[in-house]
Amino acid sequence: MKNILLLGSGGRECALAWKLSHSPLCGSFYIAPGNSGTSEYGINLPISYNDFEGIKKACIEHKIDILFPGPEDPLVNGIWDFFRNDPSLRHIIVAGPSKDGAQLEGSKAFSKKFMARHNIPTAAYKEFTKDSFEQGVAYIKRSEMPIVIKADGLAAGKGVVIAQTSIEAVKAFRAMVMDRQFGESGARVVIEQFLDGIELSVFALTDGTNYVLLPEAKDYKRIGEGDKGPNTGGMGAISPVAFADAAFMEKVTERIIKPTIKGLRAENITYKGVIFFGLISVKGEPLVIEYNCRFGDPETEVVIPRLENDLVELILKMHEGKLDEVTVQHSHKAAGAVMMVSEGYPGDYAKGKVMTGFEKVRNSLLFHAGTVSKDGGIVTNGGRVLAVTSYGENIKAALAKSYENAAHIDYEGKYYRKDIGWEFL
Ligand code: AMP
Ligand code: GLY
Q: Is the pTM of this model over 0.90?
């Protein structure tokens, strides 16, 4: 039995908590800081996922064997190295990459150069700083529109601007690199070609040599139906993705997954964790939009329910470098998740709205995202509040069930998109 501490507090972590806590290999189970949903599966600890000293204390006190960082921040900030370099923590498995490995997500300039070194297909790009501002402006002016401006570092999902005109592009570029809209994250900027296609998310678990593929998914990022309005953390997700057939996945494997893992090894970068390939299919040819060093949200809310293997066993095999011994089973059933959010999100929104109707839900999984327990009940505590996930024979049947149950949950200002999975219905 392994004692596990999961870091994070979103819908992704609630889905991971559900999965990990049901493993026969899971001993005591803790989540830091967690939410109202995760407290159904383990014990929430009031520790921020960036508080390494607090996490260290909790790991020692609760005799943790496995630390599972849900979000990217602790990984990019080097939690793997922090554990590795501390004699009292070294025995603990950190299920994620080293700080160097997390650069795949932590620095867009790093990931673009990495892809160039290993011939991995991605959008053409150039990198600029304050000192090369004028060259950046000239580059924008001679490029085709739309064009994509990306802050190099983490920017809470807000560091990407798709500009339709060069005026818009220069404005975004200036705001990042000169005005430091995202602080140091924008000190360096990647300006890249806009790719027109359909996106999907592919997840691999790697031990640095071998890998296994988890179910693929597609998320829906815009707030409005018909993929309109501002970007959010994700309004829903589906799995499987119809166009990711065997022929397409073969291209993804040969051109992207294998060269990525081989490239990490060739560069002596320790990476035992999830690689999230944010891909786009342009006329059937896959390219990388971005790498992430952790699971996706809300993709996890459909990927994890479709993974039939024991996740703790996968983590142990990953740690031992024995993922080649594992055969991953994906459920033949489809899964669809609908994200219920607070009115006003992704802008300002109210918190603390009393939630009701949980007892009416039948045949769906409820993965809490922004909720907290209060006075014996549950209240909203974030922009994204609750993911309603269902299985079905196909995407349509799965989503129909999620919508039926989303209608039962009530709170003031509830909103969700009614068209998740629209391309596949
Ligand atoms: P990222 O933060 O890198 O995930 O980018 C956010 C979103 O911007 C992606 O999920 C895509 O929808 C979009 N995006 C990023 N780069 C490109 C690109 N080169 N071409 C088209 N869309 C892009
Ligand atoms: N759903 C996209 C992400 O987790 O980054």
A: yes
